[in-house]
Structures are given as C-alpha cells and as structure tokens.
TrEMBL record:
<dbReference type="GO" id="GO:0043565">
    <property type="term" value="F:sequence-specific DNA binding"/>
</dbReference>
<dbReference type="InterPro" id="IPR011006">
    <property type="entry name" value="CheY-like_superfamily"/>
</dbReference>
<dbReference type="Pfam" id="PF02954">
    <property type="entry name" value="HTH_8"/>
</dbReference>
<keyword id="KW-0902">Two-component regulatory system</keyword>
<keyword id="KW-0804">Transcription</keyword>
<protein>
    <submittedName>
        <fullName>Regulatory protein, Fis family</fullName>
    </submittedName>
</protein>
<keyword id="KW-0547">Nucleotide-binding</keyword>
<dbReference type="Pfam" id="PF00158">
    <property type="entry name" value="Sigma54_activat"/>
</dbReference>
<dbReference type="InterPro" id="IPR058031">
    <property type="entry name" value="AAA_lid_NorR"/>
</dbReference>
<dbReference type="GO" id="GO:0000160">
    <property type="term" value="P:phosphorelay signal transduction system"/>
</dbReference>
<dbReference type="GO" id="GO:0005524">
    <property type="term" value="F:ATP binding"/>
</dbReference>
<dbReference type="Pfam" id="PF25601">
    <property type="entry name" value="AAA_lid_14"/>
</dbReference>
<feature type="domain" description="Response regulatory">
    <location>
        <begin position="8"/>
        <end position="124"/>
    </location>
</feature>
<feature type="domain" description="Sigma-54 factor interaction">
    <location>
        <begin position="149"/>
        <end position="378"/>
    </location>
</feature>
<dbReference type="InterPro" id="IPR009057">
    <property type="entry name" value="Homeodomain-like_sf"/>
</dbReference>
<dbReference type="InterPro" id="IPR025662">
    <property type="entry name" value="Sigma_54_int_dom_ATP-bd_1"/>
</dbReference>
<feature type="modified residue" description="4-aspartylphosphate">
    <location>
        <position position="59"/>
    </location>
</feature>
C-alpha cells in the first residue's frame, strides 16, 4: 500500500527517544498507517494546518505548550480531528478533562502495546466514520436549498419565500397542488431547511400501501400481532423519530387509520399493533394532497379534526398554466437532464419550439413537460429541437404528447378512459415508435440498436416480437432509400 492510500497518524511528544520508539513500533504493528512525528507543539499545529491527519497521538505534558492547549489549537485548525492523549500521569481527573475538551481517548505511559494498538485502531475507525458523514453533509449543504426547483415567476418566488418561512417552524404543513407540480420537492426543501435537516426524512405514499398493512407500516407491530407477523417491526413513526414524516397523498388514508393517526399527533405517542405500551415519538408531519379535502370532509370520508391537525400551515404549488413564463427555463433544464440521462450530445430548443411549448395546455404539469422534453431529446435528429420536431412527436403518438386535454380524457368524444387503459395505450405507442425509430436509424442493425438504447439484444428482440417489428423491413427500407 502506497503512503497516499494509507491512514495518517501524527505523534506529538517532546522526547525524541519516545517519538522514535513509537514511530518504529507503530510502523511495524500498523503497516496500513503512515506515521509522522513532531517534537514541538508549534510544529504539530503547523502540520495539522497543512495536512489532513486521521489521528493525532498527543503527549499531555510538554514544555513549550501544555497538551490541553495544544489539543485546543489542533481542534481550532480541524474541528473534526480525532486526538488520543498520552501521559505518565494517569489520573481520572486528567482523562476526564481531556475528553471534555474534545479528546477521543486517553492512554498512559508506560504503554501496554496491544492496548495502545486497540485504541489507535478504534480512533482510526471513528475518524473514518466522522469524515464520511462530514463529506455527505457538506455535499448536501453545498447544494442550494432550491436547486431542484426551476422558475423565477412571481408565484415561484412566493413559493420559495413560503418554504423558507415555514421551515423555521415545527408546525405541521399541508402541501396542496395538482399532480405533477412538485409537492414532494417542497416537502424535501422544508425538511432540509429546518432544524431537523440533519435528521431522517421518511416518506410514505399512502395509497401505495394496502389498507390492512397501512396501520402496521405507520405504527409498527409486535411479533404475533397478526398472521404473518413473525418478528417485531418498527413503524415509520419510530423510524422518523426526531426527524420528519412526509405523508404523500394523505387523502387516501382510510377513516379507521385516520383515527389512530389523529391520536398519535395529539398525544405525541404511538402504540404498535399487539403492544400494550405506548411509545413517545418526536416527529414533524408534512403531508400532501391533490384532492379536495373539504369535499371529503363533507362526504365524511376525511376527519375534520385530523384535517386541522395536518393543516396548521398550507403551501400551494402552482400549476404549470399559472407560470407559463417559467416554461422556457424548465424546458432548458430538462433538456440538459435528458441529454445526461441518455448520454447524448447537448441539445437545445429553438425559439419557435419554446413558444410552442408555452402555448400548450399541460394537465400533467411539470412532470408531463419533463416527459415531453425527454421524448424530444430522444427522437429529434439534430442538436436543435424545432417546433416541427414537437409536431412530429404528436403525430407519431396519436396527438397525445404535449398535454392537450385529450391525453387525460380519452379519444376526444368526452368519454373518460380508465387510467390503467390510457397508460397502457400510451406506453405501447411509445415503445413501438421508439423501437421503429431505432431500427430506422441503424438500418435494421439489431445489435447496434440495442447498444444505442441500453437494452440487451435479447430484450430488444423480445419487444420486436411483441409488436411484430421485423429488422429486415428496415434494411429493405434503407436500401430502397439509397437507390
């Protein structure tokens, strides 16, 4: 192992013989560690300022500067530094003082060789965990709070301001808005900006969990509480303790679970299924819905008292039709994302294409716009995506790409197509068109088409068989075109 890949240890002691003895001992016993030495406190402080050390082994008695002073100076240079103190004066009072001032551990002279190695190995591991967590935290903190939001319109600026104001409190927040308007992004922003930002954010999609399992998922259960409960299970309330719980699509929670959720919010405690004891929890609640909760209260399918518990503060996410001036910014942002996802050269929209996007209806909001942009990047042959490329996409997909109202409602005669059927139809049309376009581009070369699409050859052939697509048809087409 080269020195650049080794952990780094700095030994600080004013006795040269001690330094040399420890350097040899630890170099032999810990070959995975690069050992440096410093005989003066000022030299140690300078080294820590210039280099990143995993552990410092520091003598507590030195003439130039007291070891406690050196400890403080080192931690000012690197607050996350792991320091082990060593001394011939092994009193408990000295050990406690050193640890109170930030030392990780304490060893006494003369050393027990194996005890010293164990302490240093534990210190190395502790340092590794701290540095990893610090790195992750800095990566998260280095991102602007609204990095994933795009838009500078007045409604979006108002949204940013409201998120920041709400984040400073611990109130329950109800996030309301149409599907595809970024309600989950709002929840994540509120959490990350709050005092709980370094604690867990646990999300649960309420309609995705069967009713008979939802209570167990929320509150947990004891072994034997019901058939199949073969072990204790911690609910998401406990998982989110000291953090934030995001209940997505809260309107779909059954009334019987609403009652137990209300009790948990009122009492600040939960009782797992099959348990006789309640457990205290400290959780901030964020919830979201795209439904009319007031109407559901009138229909007695949503508890009014729960509504007021959840709706201490409301945040509304604007629909895309309310912020048309942000569509060029969004489309440009999604183009960059799609190009990265697909591994293609950077593309951009022409002015006419952006105007076309701004002039459309978007019932699926930002999520629908992103899907259209992905398709435009995928199927547009040039680096500039033009309005005619968007029209060609509409033609290829039966007019449903781009968000006319027919896409949500059905064939155009006012009849509402069931969601599952409409989704299957769009997916089939997309898949068929995608594969045909691939084969046109590769002149029927299935291997090359599979490579371009990221599919295996076998998977692509399976799709072709399903839709009755033959590669030879595209080879013939290409030969005919060249003729």
């Amino acid at each position: 192992m080269t020195d650049e890949h080794k952990a780094r240890l700095l030994i600080v002691d004013d006795e040269e013989d001690m330094l040399e003895g420890l350097r040899r001992l630890l170099g032999y016993e810990m070959p995975h560690v690069a050992v440096d030495t410093a005989s003066r406190p000022s030299q140690a402080v300078a080294r820590v300022e210039q280099e990143l050390y995993d552990v410092v082994l520091l003598d507590i008695r030195m003439p130039e500067m007291d070891g406690m002073e050196v400890l403080a100076a080192l931690r000012r240079k690197d607050p996350w530094l792991t320091v082990v103190m060593m001394t011939a004066y092994g009193s408990i009072e000295t050990a406690v003082e050193a640890i109170k001032k930030g030392a990780y551990d304490f060893v006494t002279k003369p050393f027990d060789r194996q005890a010293l190695i164990r302490v240093l190995e534990k210190a190395m591991e502790r340092n590794r965990l701290i540095r990893e967590n610090l790195h992750l935290r800095r990566r998260a903190e280095g991102k602007p709070p609204f990095e994933q939001f795009v838009g500078q319109s007045a409604p979006m600026r108002s949204l940013y301001e409201r998120i920041q104001a709400v984040a400073r409190t611990d109130y329950a927040v109800l996030i309301r808005g149409e599907s595809g308007t970024g309600k989950e992004l709002v929840a994540r922003a509120v959490h990350s900006l709050s005092r709980r930002g370094q604690r867990p954010l646990i999300s649960i999609n309420c309609p995705a969990i069967p009713e008979h399992l939802l209570e167990s998922e929320l509150f947990g259960h004891k072994k034997g509480a019901f058939t199949g409960a073969d072990r204790d299970h911690r609910g998401i309330f406990e998982e989110a303790h000291s953090g934030t719980l995001f209940l997505d699509e809260i309107a779909d929670i059954p009334v019987n679970v609403q009652t137990k959720l209300l009790r948990a919010l009122q009492e600040g405690e939960i009782k797992p299924l099959g348990d006789v004891k309640a457990r205290k929890v400290d959780v901030r609640i964020l919830s979201s819905t795209n439904q009319d909760l007031e109407e559901k209260i009138r229909d007695r399918t949503f508890r009014e008292d729960l509504f007021y518990r959840l709706n201490v503060v409301t945040i509304r996410t604007p629909a895309l039709r309310e912020i048309p001036e942000d569509i060029p910014l969004l489309a440009t942002h999604f183009v960059r994302m799609a190009c990265e996802e697909l591994g293609v050269s950077v593309k951009r929209f022409s002015e006419s294409a952006l105007e076309a996007l701004m002039g459309r209806d978007w019932p699926g909001n930002v999520r629908q716009l992103q899907n259209v942009v992905r398709q435009a990047v995928m199927f547009s042959p040039e680096d500039v995506i033009r309005a005619e490329d968007l029209r060609r996409l509409e033609t290829g997909f039966g007019g449903n790409v781009g968000g006319g109202r027919k896409a949500a409602g059905g064939p155009g005669d006012g009849r509402v197509v069931p969601y599952k059927d409409a989704k299957e139809r769009v997916v089939e049309e997309f898949t068929s068109r995608y594969v045909r376009d691939l084969l046109e581009r590769t002149e029927g070369n299935v291997s090359r088409a599979a490579e371009m699409s990221g599919l295996t050859r076998a998977a692509l052939q399976k799709i072709m068989r399903r839709y009755g697509i033959r590669s030879e048809d595209y080879r013939a087409f290409s030969n005919h075109s060249r003729a």
